[in-house]
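User: Show me sequence and structure for the first protein, then do the same for the second.

Assistant: Starting with the first protein.
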Amino acid sequence: MSILLQMNGISKIFGSTKALDNVNFELKRGECHALMGENGAGKSTLIKILMGVYTKDSGSIFIEGNNADITNPHDAMHFGIAAVYQDVFLAPQLTIGENFFLGNLPKNKIGKVNWTEVYEKADDNLKKLNISLNPREKLSSITIAQQQMVTIAKAVYQNARILIFDEPTAFLTNDEKEQIFNIIRKMREMNCGIIYISHRLEEVFEICDRVTILKDGKYIDMLNINETDENVLVGLMVGRDLSGMYNIKSHAKNNYVLDVKNISAISNNVNDVSFDLKENEIFGIFGLVGSGRTELLRAIFGIDKRIDGTVNLFGKEVHFKNPKQSILNKIGFIAEDRKRQSLAINLSIIDNINLPSYKNISTMGLFISQSRAKKNALEFVEKLKIKTSGIEQNVESLSGGNQQKVVIAKWLLIGANILIADEPTIGVDVGSRNDIYKIMEQLTESGVSIILISSYLPEIMGLSDRIMVMHEGKNMGIIEEKDFSEEKLMTLASGLEIT
């Protein structure tokens, strides 16, 4: 395979921070090349330079052997470079066809939009990638995975030769992930080059040919996928041994802190579910997307309305009608979408950590003690090892792992006895994942009980004391740790009984 893209000696400095230091990267035609590293390693900066969002301070970029001067996104488009992100940047209120030609709708001789051409061309280009979608459908009516497919087809139509995938499967089902992978395979057949960024190592080994590792803004190594393994990659990325990442100690006791009986929720995705939570336990809930895992916990926490069933907290029946009541009873909820549901993304670390606790550090509920707020924030930044330039830093500028630590901190500050963690490591690098797992271990040792929702099998099996599997809103069974197996979990999650 011939070289499609060559990035040589790329450096970028922001103030006193050297984000990239003499980084090299190459991409061949028909190749899927993983770009890996912890958050802060420089991956995003390198990609933004390639996309024309940032300009490099030094170094050179060659596309098909020719010097490519990329100073803005229009230049990147001119050179055939496009990106697919986990958050799709399209217009949801418009049709697929309109999004396909956004800003460049074909016109007829009298200057009116040629709608026939819009939908016929969109349809033809979707079919080239074996994508079965009606171009007249509104974008808002299709799944995130299908929206990503539209983005890919649009890029191919615009003659993209280099396509960047940045955490594309974070919120996808296994079937949807496989659809995206099939499109990537199709694009490789078309001699396009794919740059694949993901924190999920198993995906890299499934779809990629080579991998380049960055650490602290520097090029570390480039390896052929078939000549390496996960432990080697983790070691290069993190610089320390994480082979025992999932081997956390169990501290579960036999007395129960939460007893849920026959819960049904107004979402119609939770039907007659029962389970219990032990003191100091990590209780896992596994299921495919749409199984009702999140809806179940939202109904218990008081976000969604439940229509049947009982919940006993420390032996006393409770019915939380809103999250405030749950928080007063020392239950915390780490939402799957931390940026929209767990954080005030435009506020500082100090504001976010103290957010549920301002009543406790104010006089008559009116005057907040800034000194106590600062003390709280400093305490948890140190305790959870949150990497930050200071507690006044905006949480939006933190890495995914450090954002998640801020979320955990705010619930620890209220003295949470029970912590609900919904997909707590989505978009979190392997080093930060290890940190979060160790925090969870320490929490259970100190008396906190955790309900862990995760669709990542190594995580749910590695951390949980017991696992409940859900399918279409129902409890398919609770498996003890000694009986854990991927086959059992996937069988139950698919709605089948274990024989």
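Switching to the second protein now.
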Amino acid sequence: MPRPASTLRWLTLASLVAVGFRAVDDAFLQRPHGVEVGDHVLSGLVPLLGLAVAAWAASHLNGAVRGLVLLIAGLLGLVGGMELFAEAGTVSGGVQADDLSGILSMAGGVVLVAISFHSIWAAPRRQRSVTSRNVMRGMATLGVWVAAIVVVFPVGLGYFATHASGPGLSAAPDLGFPVTKVDLESSDGLRLSAWYAPSRNGAAVIVVPGRSGVDHARLLAQHGYGVLLLNRRGEADSEGDPNLFGWGGQGDIDGAIDFLSARDDVHPGRVGALGLSVGGEVLLEHAATSSGLAAVVSEGAGSRSIRETVELSGGIRIAELTTAPLLTGSLVVWSNRPPPPNLVDALDGLGPTPALVVWGEEGQPAEIKLGKTYAAAAGPASSSWEVPGAGHTRGLDTAPDDYERIVVGFLDAHLLGGVNDRG
């Protein structure tokens, strides 16, 4: 009959292998369309290296330290199964090819969490009384859990942001005008889907993210603008890895510009863009580094990595810095790409594209602070508007008349020379 220690050792190893199988399957075997094996080197090898360290710790360490390592590995195993729940309700819902490895990862994670408790509570204690031993064990358990959560929360958020694709727009949006589903190609070769309402005034506006910008697109269409509601990479049936922080989004915008510039209903030099939240951040970077757009409206832009977090101040800076380093590192690993440039630095003096920076008076704390900072960094090439009483990206809902006057007026000035033809 095998000894309990031997059984526990093999159970630990089997659970780590289950979590590792998920990492391999996720990175190399079940890749999104348009993604090559070489695109996932970091997201495949770094987790395997971490699990190898956990396997070593399981054999060579004891007590709370061993418990902490196994608890982190177990929680990351649970994170590896998050996609099972994130898929529910999206166009990729139902049974997926990678669900088996996700289930194994979650099972392995549960076992590792249980073994981590055993490691903490089974460690010998020198205290004389049962009460003092239990108090020390309880304190060690709490400390280990706090330490694990400090690590796992930002890492898990990074995983979710690069695996849980947004639903995008899979059905035609109601803009009050005919829309057609179109395909276009990002500058790095991915096939993206979008919905397009043709221009009636010779100008067109890219709306990103398309799903959250339907009301904005409807307003623009009423003013005669062609509107392209873009499904970003990884959304709906667009190819590529999703990234809810917008990393890699410049290639999507370049592809949308090329698509609109080739259309007969859009005159040369009359392509603009409106971005909400992360979409606003992507467009600000594009405005600062490219001349492809004639005007950009960015609403609700915040921080997308530690590079913008350090531009904050006060309590919000301290709060974000508790997670930003590991979150940014996690995004680097899971997205297999370096973080985008600091928007404040990129916007210094702005580039060739004028921008309107919008944020809500009641928006997210980082949005309010950074909206003002982005507008100041862009200088005279930009303009800004704090929408009274508005929450995050709720400017149109909160002040529809002012929104139409200011936002559409800004686009009219730069895309139509100030003259709007409703067609």
